[in-house]
Amino acid sequence: MTVEGGRARKRHARVAVSRLTVTIVLANMIGLVILLLGSFALTQYRDGLVQAKLEGVRAQAQIIADVLAQVAIDETSCQPVDEADIARQGEETSLCALALSQTDVREVFNRVWDSFEGRVRIFNAPQTFDDPPVSNASILLIEDVVLREDRIVAETLPPIETEQTQSFFDAEGFWHDFLDYFSKGYRNQAAHRSLEAELNEALSSSPFAEDRGAASVRINEEGELVVSVTVPIRRVQAIYGMVTAESGGIDSLVEAARFAILPFFGLGVAAAILSSLLLTAMIAQPIRQLAIAADKVREGIAAAGRARIPDFTNRKDEIGELSGSLKSMTQAIYARIDAIESFAADVAHELKNPLTSIRSASETLEIAKTPEQQAKLMSVIQKDVARMDRLITDISNASRLDAELARETREAVDLNRLIKDIISLYKELKNDENAPVTFNDPIQAVYVLGNPSALGQVVRNLIDNALSFCPADGSVRVYLEAPTQRASTARIIVDDDGPGIPPDTLESIFKRFYTKRAAGAAFGNNSGLGLAISRQIVNAHGGRIVAENRLDDPGDPTGKRLGARFIIELPSE
Fold this sequence. Notes:
Radius of gyration: 53 Å
Strand order of the largest sheet: 2-1-5-4-3
Largest sheet: 5 strands, antiparallel
CATH class of the largest domain: Alpha Beta
Number of helices: 15
Number of strands: 12
CATH topology of the largest domain: Heat Shock Protein 90
Distance between the termini: 41 Å
Low-confidence stretches: 1-15, 91-95, 520-524
């Protein structure tokens, strides 16, 4: 992210809508919307309602058919026909003309059907043997009545002169269209069913079936979805007519049931929004605060300032872990910045000392009169140049040490063999001015996981440090201790016979550019970085390095010092 982006995020932090908040809200709403649409699309309720309607209408149609079969059949409409008349008049002569008495049908409806509701139509039986028998139901229609419970509905109508305005968005009309979308397929199937097909099916139905007649779901003349049952009016096996009973209101009942879901959906939406806001307060806002604090840290580093990371570690969750990690990272960055600043100041100071010495010697060299004085000044200059060379080399090694340790891979290192190779090199370069270096190696091999070159540098730094303090008649001794059951660390010990270390500087000697030496020790032969580099390498390997004195009486810390001892502990696993 650019600096401008970070500033924009901070400027709008209090008013901007969090994308994570929107994502949480949408994620919670998707499930509710799917559930709502699924409840609209499911057909179990509608099919159950249609089946219940059909059962009621069928019972009503069968009762009407049975009553009409008893009281409304026109007995005179069926007369026996002589075989001679049939032969004389041809095939067009019917054996029997079956029909209902229209007067009796109307009398029945006028007297007994106040308790029934729905539309009832009475048809005569077809008098032809065409296929299909009924091609136009209106020709056979005797009676068409709508039966309903008597009731008075009062409704206040608007004034005639008042013009009804319709809003651009008709919510009720939109809702009806929305619900009709889920019933489109069902209505299309119902639209392909006709009254004539239902009548023909009823004519061909068995009189011994449990559910007499034919049933269907159709669209009536007004475009309303209705359930319809047609039952033949039979006496014995003869069909005199048919009763068709219809009942509507399916759409309104299904729509009412769907409307009943909306309050629960509204409660679900409210709960989803509240839970989203809660999740936003618990997740999105802390993350946003951490992001803003991270931007401030970046800008603070550029402006040499300090920024604080919000502390959410008391939450004991992933946000708390992220907060703790960012806080630790920020502290490490600030510590590294402080170390770099301190290192730069120390480097400038350490380089300035030999340069000052060289400048003084060169200025004095011009006025030196004797060759002895000139040779002495040249020796000082040469030593300071060598000191600067060592300083620059050690500074270069120290500055790239972290990157090298992070980049290089670890491998199994045989400490026994590593130390032997180093000691053999010191034995080859032995001179009378330096103390001898010995190694007491264990019988078995000791392995650790690490960088062999870096660990070798640590051993060489400790031996060089010990040789710089140890007199020529003394010795430097290196020990290697294998891990035990009680201690799972390998130990490297370096002892010398020098003056030892002042107790108050046992920790300070590991600081960078620490060059305080005992009285009589040569000055300028060390850069003060060897022990600091050694501790840095050992810490990177998960171990530790400490310094202590070898005492004449180990129980008396103020007793005579026999020399110094450095102990390195490295994990063996």
